[in-house]
Amino acid sequence: MTDPDAALVPAPADRFSVLIDLESSRDIETSAGGVSWRMGPPCESAECAEAIAATARSVRYYPLHPQLFQSVTFPCDWLDPSFAAALADGSDEALLSILHVEVPKLVFSFEMVTSCFCTLLLEELAHYEASGLPVRRPNTMNRYGLVLNQIGLKPLLDDLQQSCLLPLSRLLFPAEGASFDDHHSFMVKYRNGEDVHLDMHHDDAEVTLNVCLGKAFTGATLSFCGGVGEAGHRKHMHKYTHRLGRAVVHKGSHRHGADELEDGERISLIMWSRSSSYRQSVKYLTSHIGWRRTHPGVAPPRGHGGRRPASATPAGWAEVEVGAPDPICLSETHDADYGEHAPFRAGVTYRPLERAAHLGAFSSDDASARAVALKARGTVDFKAANWAAAAAKYAAAAEYIVRSTAAAKEEDGAVERAAATRLDTEEGEMAAAVADEGPVCCRRAVVSETEAERAKAAVLALATLWLNEAQCQLNLQEHETASQCCSKVLALEADGHLTAAQCAKAYFRRGLASMGSANFEGARTDLLAAGQLEPANKAVRVQLRTCAEHDRASREHEKEVYRRALGGHCGSGGAKRAEQASSCASSCASSCASSSGLGTTPEEEKAFDVFDFYEASSGELQVVD
C-alpha cells in the first residue's frame, strides 16, 4: 500500500499538501501503464476491483493554489463587491436589492464571485485532473466533472454555504432553506465530444446554487419548468443564460435542465445544500418528492400530502397537469410516461420499477381510457409517418390494457371482500349497499358483462396494438422488435379470441420481419401461414414471391461458392451438394408458384385493410387498426 505521505510528484518537504481519502473513489479504469484514474461511470470489471484493492486508501495532493485549501473562511475579495456589501449590511433590504428575479418566488440570480476566483478554481481543477488522482463522477447524470469535497475544498465550501448562501436561502425559501447541515459540491463541464446537455431533472437538495466559472461558450442555457408534484411541473417557465461569476439559486425540487451547448466549453460550480431538519418535517414527508425518496418505486397514494383529492386519477400527481407537457420539460431519464409523449433514443427505455409504479396507480377505468387516448394519438403519428412516436404510443397503450385487466380483477376482489364483511347485516341493508355501489362492470371503459367478455376484449385490444406497433417497427427497419410484437400477438391465439384477420396480419408482418433479417426460411413459413388464413390476400402473394426470389438467389450464390471452392470441378460430392441446393431453390419456387394461383377481388383485399391505409411507395400493405 502506498505511503499516504508520499508525493505524487517531487516536491519540497515543506510544500503545502492535502491528504485525500480515496476510500469512496470507484471511477477508475486500467491501462497498459498501470492504473489510470479518469472521469466516467463506475467501473465494474475484475481489473478495476483489483486496482482499487492495490491502491492506497489515501494520498497526498499538492495544490497549484494552496490558498484555496488553507482558507477556512471564504475571503471577501473573492466575492463580487455588491454581494460582499449586501452580506456586510445583513438586512433583508440589502440582500434583496442585489437579486434579479428570474421566476417570481422560485428562481433568482445575482453577481456572486469575481473572475479572479473563477480563474483560480478552474486552474486548480485542471491541475488536479492532470495529477493522476481519482476523479469521482459528480452525480448519476453528469459524466464529466469533479466532486470538490473529495479533493480537500470542503472547508472553504462549508463557509461559502453558511456565510454566503444561507442568509439568502433563509430569505427566499423559509421552509427549505432555513438551515443547512450538509452539502454536495461539485464541478460540471460541458463541451463538444463530452456532455453537451443535461436532461430535465430535480436535485437531491433543498436549495441548489449554480455558479458559472467560464469559459467561453454559446448555448448551454438553463431551462426551468415547474416544481415536482405541481400542476405545471412540465410546463416551461424560463430560460436562464449563464454569465461568468453570476449565480442562480433555486429549490432543488424545481425541474430544470441544461440546454444544448452550441460551441466552446461551460464549467459551473454546483452546490446542493441539504437540511436534515427539513427532511424530518411533515411538509417534506407529505410532499411528492418526500414520498419518492422514502418509498422508491412505489406510487403515492391518492390524497397524499393534500395535493390530490381522493377522487383524482391516476399515478403520482402526474394527472394534475393541465394540458400536454411542453416537449422541453420532458425527461427521458426521470419521466415514467416519457414514451407516451416522445420516442426514446436507441437503447434507452423506462426504469422498470418507476414504470411499474406509475402503471400500478391507475384504476381499471383510468388505464382503459389512457389506452384509448394513446391509440388514437399513435394513429395520428402513424398517418404522419412519425413511426417511432407511433410505436412508442402503441406499446404504452398495450401496457395500459394489461393494467386495466389486472386492476379490474383487483377491484372485483375488493368488492367481493367488502360484500363478505356485510353478510351478517340485515337483508335490506345489504341490498341498499349493492344498489349504491352499482355493478362493477358498468364502471369500466372496456364494456363487458362477464369476466370472459372482459378477457376477450383485452386480447383483441392487445392484438391490435401490438400489430400496429409491429408495422411501425417494420417501417423503422427494426425487424427483431417487429418480430417480437407479432410473436406476442400469436401467443394470444391460445385464448381463442383472435380473429383470422389478426392472426394473418401477425404471420404476415413477422414474415416481413424475417425477410428483413434475411431469414427466408422463417419468412416463407409465416407467409404461407398467412396465405392459408387469408387466401385472397394479394400482399401475401407478392411478398411470398419476393421471398422465393431472395431464397433462390441465396442458394444460387451458395452453389457458386461451392463451385469456386472446387476449382470449377464439382466431383461427385460437389455435384450432389449442387443438386441439393438446386432442389431447395426449386422447392421454394414451387411454393411461390402454388401461392400465385390464389385469386383476389377488391372485396377480399379489403378484409386485410381496416382503414384502407397503404404506403404506395413501398409496395407493402401498411394498415393500423
Task: Label this structure with key terms.
625 residues; alpha+beta; Jelly Rolls; Serine Threonine Protein Phosphatase 5, Tetratricopeptide repeat; eight-stranded antiparallel beta sheet; four-stranded antiparallel beta sheet; 20 helices; globular; disordered N terminus
Distance between the termini: 67 Å
Which CATH architecture of the domain at 64-280 is right?
Sandwich
Shape: globular
Provide the residue-averaged pLDDT.
79
Question: Roughly how much helix do the residues carry, as a percent range?
Answer: 40-55%
What does the largest sheet look like? 8 strands, antiparallel
Number of helices: 20
**Beta-strand percentage range:** 5-15%
The count of DSSP E runs of length 2 or more, i.e. the number of strands, is 16
Spans with pLDDT under 50 lasting ≥5 residues?
A: 1-11, 24-44, 303-319, 430-448, 584-621
CATH fold call of the domain at 64-280: Jelly Rolls
Describe the structure in brief:
The protein has 625 residues and is of the alpha+beta class.
What is the topological layout?
Elements: E1 18-21, E2 28-31, E3 34-37, H1 46-54, E4 58-61, H2 67-70, H3 81-89, H4 92-97, E5 100-103, E6 107-111, H5 115-130, E7 145-147, H6 154-172, E8 182-191, E9 198-201, E10 207-214, E11 217-219, E12 222-227, E13 238-240, E14 246-251, E15 254-258, E16 261-274, H7 276-279, H8 282-285, H9 288-294, H10 352-360, H11 364-383, H12 387-420, H13 427-437, H14 451-475, H15 479-491, H16 500-516, H17 520-533, H18 538-565, H19 571-595, H20 602-606
Antiparallel strand pairs: 1-4, 2-3, 5-6, 6-14, 7-8, 8-16, 9-15, 10-14, 10-16, 11-16, 12-13, 12-15
